[in-house]
Design goal:
The complex is a heterodimer. Chain A is an alpha+beta fold. Helices cover about 30% and strands about 25% of the residues of chain A. A 7-stranded mixed beta sheet of chain A has the order 3-5-1-13-10-11-12, sandwiched between helices. In chain A, strands 7-17-16-15-8 form a 5-stranded mixed beta sheet. Classes of the chains: A alpha+beta, B alpha+beta. Chains A and B meet through α1 and α17 of A and α2, α3, α4, α5 and α6 of B.
Chain lengths: ~800, ~150
């Protein structure tokens, strides 16, 4: 059992500020682009200006002659160095994709695809040279619409068609009977827009090939250094021990930085080719055209309900467009697959059917981005819930109360069959309504409406996948570890060093590991030094993604720290001639467990253990470093749950939506640092709001990106964002002693649905409804106009 | 072109190409890598620095334009006690996660605080609204600035 927060010597559960925040605020951030190396050269890529085009002759003569140009690298130059890859996994039966190379050859299949690299002494010189490269392009028709893609010619002829993957899940009772016998049937289409991660630090990589040692060191802004090491070694045909991957500070990731990108791979191959350090940092235009995109979905859904307001059946049909390749090694089938897995997942749904089609198109590849598939599944489910409530004349909160899975029903399964360990939907909803003052808001809304103002109130319940087991990727053959490791070491002076395989991108990974180790070892977290992001200095593990850092890496740290505590007590017991069970660790010392009396300080013990073995009793070998690993086994995922509420005001004259306030109740199990969890939730909510209101990669029918700058692609800024109230319920997972689940994606999972429901609540008196994200002022005005016409 | 400039209180003379941006000079010629580059066209605010006390985008100012001026970057702010409360508030409120936007946020916040007065949250949000942060959702940043403003008032 973990102790309550108010006990001394307890760090789990405390809102402790992060050491890394102090370092960053003092200008001590050190990202890939901040690293300085002798003989470093810079690479810039020639990218296809066309969505689909045959690559003809390439003339590099003028570019080669520019001062500072070191080498111009063509696709075939890298063939002897690097092998291609294909983004498929065995457990996604039928998923297909084409081989992908570091530099495209033959035919370019999306705008932004790298086809040639210029290496120069400065990035500016490399870009100057790029401008002089002549390419004989032969544009081909581009397919940008998923329906057209499925009906048309294959982008990769060898694949036969553009259907990358399809899956149907059908569970429970007979769907047709349920719909035929329903009291009410509601149906709707939804769309979520293709958008992208927009990490403020663009992707960056610096590869250093040491010919004398035949060793590659890659400094990489990645979430998964051990995975990248495997991949670099495999595709460079190097023994694994020849590759080291180091993560410096990583400036936001959100899934963007966990994938294999051709330009990153090309940079590494070029470093091997040239035998010197090579750096690539994407500029913002490159980020928009070559970072993974996500969430281009069109959904049609139907829900059947009985006269008591209970769901009888749910049917979801999802068509998603992933670009021309399934991304390596996680694949681009996962997002749609999550929609199938998660839709309806918090309700009792006696009959469920979900159908997914994944189409290739000539736009940049899509892959996992924060809250993979959840924003889509939650928007569809909660949009349908509100429609059903409206058809029944029920308040949306009451409809949810009647249909949410009971808090005492666990373990149980989602409509799709996915297993849940323990969730708290009813308690979470009740808490949300309380912190929102839901009834008060409804009264305020009625008052405002009487005054001609249009307030909208929306709620959305949801689940979030966290702590995935090997069933997520490893089972399909990907070099992606579901386990993580942690080494905890006592230093001679009483400090503790923690080395963990989970990684830090600003969420506070290192801070929570400090707190976990400090808690188990009875020391001040300030005396815990944490090492992450280095394949040679940390145990092996998966890294940080899918909200797994705290739940899996945190548990490995807890177990290693407990193991070290036991070894410290054993050593102290031997020295003090005391039963180790009678000793405890507190205040940086070994104390008597019963009285708390000081027996020996940790510095005294450390010095004895490391320097004065001569004083130890015979046969006593101090073991002051302990490594433990952890992975989940009983449940494929540790689901979390929560609900969100949104209050908006709509201006029907301009179509503008003002976000007045947002509320979240989140159950992520044990909370290690409540401040950091709240900030994960808030940041996640704002990212979800981005998808709901602003963000869309706009393409014309030829596959040209129309808004590839930050001036044109809108992201949430401080001025438009609401204050966000966060409250917690804790249902710890029993799979670990720590009990933590994940908190990184809940905000993003639920926010778009809450905003959509609030908007439609405000639009209802105008007979208008909108389910196509983002909800731009133009779309809002069009919906109002359409509503007026059809009144 | 030879320019002469005060950077974080130190006098430096640099020979730069006319096309070089101030932020590139600071990062690549002076190795002051604390300021970060996010979009290179003045939208994201990551490279915001103080130029003669005014918050400017380092990517929209040419190095030659800063000839004879005083530049203050996050490294300089960290050595200057006038900003200790602001930095401490950012840490206490966790007003940063990855930290990439932070040097720019601090410069813009410092400018607002220097102007005096007691703007409300909405006004603080509006002032900070030219700087993009993908991690925090902004609330903690606004909280930090508001805390310092109230403490200084």
């Amino acid at each position: 059992m973990l102790h309550a927060v108010d006990l001394p010597n307890t760090w789990i559960g405390r809102a402790r500020p992060r050491d890394a925040a102090a370092r960053q605020a003092a200008g001590g951030g050190r990202f890939v682009d901040d690293l300085r190396f002798p003989r470093l050269v810079h690479v810039a890529f020639l990218r296809s200006p066309h969505a689909h085009a045959r690559i003809g002759a390439i003339d590099t003569a003028a570019a080669s002659a520019l001062p500072g140009v070191v080498r111009i690298v063509r696709a075939e130059d890298l063939d002897p160095i690097m092998s291609p890859w294909t983004g498929v996994l065995a457990h996604f039966k039928g998923l297909k994709s084409a081989p992908q190379f570091p530099l495209g050859r033959g035919t370019a299949v999306f705008q932004g695809e790298p086809i040639l690299a210029v290496v120069a002494e400065t990035r500016a010189q490399a870009e100057d040279a790029l401008a002089l490269v002549q390419v004989d392009w032969h544009p081909l028709p581009a397919v940008t619409d998923p329906e057209a893609a499925l009906a048309g010619a294959a982008i990769h002829a060898a694949l036969g068609d553009n259907l990358a993957f399809t899956r149907t899940a059908e569970t429970g009772g007979d769907l047709a009977t349920a719909f035929a016998g329903a009291h009410r049937v509601v149906e709707s289409r939804f769309s979520t827009a293709r958008h992208t991660g927009v990490t403020l630090e663009p992707r960056g990589i610096l590869a250093d090939w040491n010919r004398a040692e035949a060793r590659l060191t890659v400094h990489h802004g990645t979430q998964a250094p051990h995975m990248m090491k495997e991949i670099f070694a495999k595709h460079l045909a190097l023994p694994e021990e020849s590759v080291r991957v180091i993560c410096p500070d990583v400036g936001g990731s959100f899934g963007v930085k966990v994938h294999v990108y051709p330009d990153d791979m090309a940079t590494v191959a070029i470093a091997v080719l040239l035998g010197r350090p090579v750096k690539f940092v994407a500029d913002r235009m490159e980020s928009f055209t070559s970072d993974i995109h996500a969430r281009e979905h069109r959904i049609h859904a139907r829900m059947a309900v009985d006269a008591d307001g209970r769901i009888l059946a749910l049917e979801v049909d999802d068509l998603t467009a992933i670009g021309p390749y399934s991304v390596y090694p996680r694949t681009s089938a996962v997002e749609g697959n999550q929609v199938v897995n998660i839709s309806g997942g918090w309700y009792r749904v006696p009959a469920y059917r979900a159908h997914l089609r994944v189409a290739f198109t000539n736009k940049p590849p899509t892959c996992q981005y924060r809250a993979v598939g959840h924003p889509v599944a939650v928007a569809v489910t909660e949009g349908m819930a509100d429609l059903a409530a409206e058809a029944l004349g029920l308040d949306p909160a009451e409809f949810r109360r009647r249909n949410l899975i009971a808090d005492d029903a666990y373990p149980t399964r989602a409509p799709s069959g996915i297993l849940f360990e323990g969730l708290s939907h009813h308690r979470a909803l009740a808490r949300l309504l309380e912190i929102m003052d839901y009834d008060g808001l409804r009264a305020q809304q009625a008052q405002a409406r009487a005054e001609g103002r249009h307030l909208g109130i929306g709620i959305a319940c949801f689940v979030e996948i966290a702590n995935p087991s090997a069933a997520f990727y490893g089972v399909g053959g990907a070099p992606i570890s579901a386990q993580d490791g942690c080494t905890v070491r006592l230093e001679p002076g009483g400090a503790v060093t923690v080395a963990s395989s989970i990684t830090e991108q600003g969420q506070g990974t290192e801070a929570i590991l400090q707190q976990i180790a400090a808690d188990a070892l009875g020391i001040d977290p300030a005396r815990v030094r944490v090492i992450t992001g280095d394949t040679e200095r940390t145990p092996y593990g998966g890294g940080t993604w899918a909200s797994r850092g705290a739940g899996i890496g945190g548990e490995a740290c807890l177990q290693a720290s407990r193991g070290l505590a036991e070894n410290i007590r054993a050593l102290a017991g031997a020295v003090l001639q005391a039963d180790p069970q009678s000793l405890a660790l507190a205040g940086g010392a070994v104390v008597d467990a019963a009285t708390g009396a000081l027996r020996m300080t940790l510095p005294d013990l450390g010095r004895l253990g490391y320097f004065r073995g001569d004083l130890l009793p015979p046969g006593v070998q101090p073991e002051l470093s302990v490594t433990r690993h952890f992975q989940t086994k009983k449940f494929p995922f540790a689901f979390t749950n929560g609900c969100q509420g949104s209050l908006i005001e709509l201006d029907p004259e301009t179509g503008f939506i003002t976000l007045k306030k947002h509320w979240v109740v989140e159950d992520c199990g044990t909370v290690i640092n409540p401040m950091l969890v709240d900030e994960q939730v808030r940041g996640g909510v704002v990212q979800g709001i981005g998808g709901a209101l602003y963000e869309e990669c706009l393409y014309d029918t030829d596959g040209n990106l129309l808004n590839g700058t930050m001036a044109d692609y809108l992201v949430p800024m401080a001025g438009e964002m609401p204050d966000i109230v966060v409250a917690h319920i804790a249902t710890p997972t029993a799979e670990s002693a720590l009990g933590a689940k994940g908190a990184g994606e809940a905000g993003t999972a639920g926010a778009p649905a809450a905003i959509m429901n609030a908007l439609n609540d405000a639009l209802r008196p105008l007979s208008a409804r909108l389910t196509d994200m983002p909800f731009t002022p133009k779309r809002v005005l069009d919906a109002i106009k359409h509503g007026r016409t059809h009144q | 072109m030879k320019i002469s400039i005060s950077v974080n209180g130190e006098h430096v003379a640099v020979d730069v190409a006319p096309r070089m941006h101030l932020i590139d000079m600071l990062r690549d010629r002076l190795d002051l890598t604390g300021s970060h580059v996010g979009c290179e066209h003045g939208v994201c605010g990551a490279c915001t620095i103080l130029l003669d006390g005014v918050a400017v985008r380092g990517c929209l100012v040419l190095a030659v334009q800063a000839d004879g001026c005083a530049v203050l970057t996050v490294e300089g702010m960290a050595q200057d006690a006038r900003f200790d409360d602001l930095r401490a508030a950012f840490v206490a409120h966790n007003a940063l996660q990855c930290g990439y936007c932070t040097p720019g946020m601090l410069a813009v916040a410092a400018e607002l605080l220097d102007a005096g007065g007691t703007p409300d949250r909405e006004a603080i949000r509006a002032h900070m609204s030219g700087n993009y942060c993908r991690c925090t959702g902004y609330q903690a940043i606004i909280d930090a600035v508001e805390t310092v403003m109230k403490a200084r008032a």
